[in-house]
Amino acid sequence: MNLLITGAAGFIGTNFVYYWLKNHPADPIIALDALTYAGNRDNLRQAEASPNFEFVHGNILDQSLVETLLSTRNIDTIVHFAAESHVDRSIQGPDAFIETNIVGTHTLLKAVKNIWLNKYPQPRHRFHHISTDEVYGSLKPDDPPFSENTPYAPNSPYAASKAASDHLVRAYHKTFGLETTISNCSNNFGPFQFPEKLIPLMITNILAGKPIPVYGDGQQIRDWLYVDDHNQGVDLILKKGRSGQVYNIGGNNEQTNLDIIHMVCDLMNNAFTADPGLAAQYPDCPCTRSIHPSTLITHVTDRKGHDRRYAINATKIQTQLAFTPEHTFNQGLQKTLNWYLTKDPGPRI
């Protein structure tokens, strides 16, 4: 495949680049990223050593740029990660989410239609769109997990913008015959994640000795998926998934936010006990004074429209494409913590 990866300097995009270079080293990769607050080119420093990797600083809203890349680099596969993705930010300022997630996705679709279907017909092509389980809304405690047939019911501006982009991708397949697939994933975690999301925020706050904010009672439930398990699922979809289909990718790891916070606190405490050298690196961490980091837990007012529970039914991708997550939640959490302890854990702005 000749790949164009959008949002390649962001969290999941970065991990996907490294996953693909490791597992498909012969495939050329064009990494496109606008380098907004959550994108960091330095994330891709090691990737730039590969002769099959090229970084392009640009925006998915630039249709001319995308068309040029498609035609001059013989791109036949797009993996579209680029998105505004933080719910809190979408509540404070929805406009950026409409612009990037809806207009940006539509701009990409117009570009690939123009190049792959009109100017330079490309019989073998694929537009893979990365979406979220949040498009399905919120589950009650006893509700069955989201399946690919669950009606859309987004509750935040972020989720609504992703739902709209999903519908656009589906429409371009149905109306124009564009070869597309969509994956709706559960909460990802792992290396390179910008510290505004739950797990990296907890880790960086503990290391800095700052409060760990917990929305409401902390009993919100999410299904958690280690990022490279997600990337394995996308790989399978690109290789064996059927055009026009939607695949839910989940980790079968339902956890409450508060339980995860206590897990991270325990793992951090264990890490400092096992490696006394960490105290010198992180003098502000309570663990350096033999204080358990759970003392930093601070309950704050719940956010507006906070969905209570998400859960993914991944039966379709498991049975049709033989997807099986390789990491348990505890394994993924330990690997994530190890990465933040050995890399620069601060915000990348």
UniProtKB/TrEMBL annotation:
Catalytic activity: dTDP-alpha-D-glucose = dTDP-4-dehydro-6-deoxy-alpha-D-glucose + H2O
Cofactor dependency: NAD(+)
EC number(s) recorded for this UniProt protein: 4.2.1.46
GO MF assignments: dTDP-glucose 4,6-dehydratase activity
Protein keywords: Lyase, NAD
Record SUPFAM superfamilies: NAD(P)-binding Rossmann-fold domains
Cross-referenced InterPro entries: dTDP_Gluc_deHydtase, NAD(P)-bd_dom, NAD(P)-bd_dom_sf
Family the entry assigns: Belongs to the NAD(P)-dependent epimerase/dehydratase family. dTDP-glucose dehydratase subfamily.
Domain NAD(P)-binding: 4-336
EC class (word): lyase
GO terms, biological process: nucleotide-sugar metabolic process
The name this protein goes by in its record: dTDP-glucose 4,6-dehydratase
Any Pfam family the entry gives: GDP_Man_Dehyd
NCBIfam families in UniProt: dTDP_gluc_dehyt (TIGR01181)
Organism placement in taxonomy: Bacteria, Pseudomonadati, Thermodesulfobacteriota, Desulfobacteria, Desulfobacterales
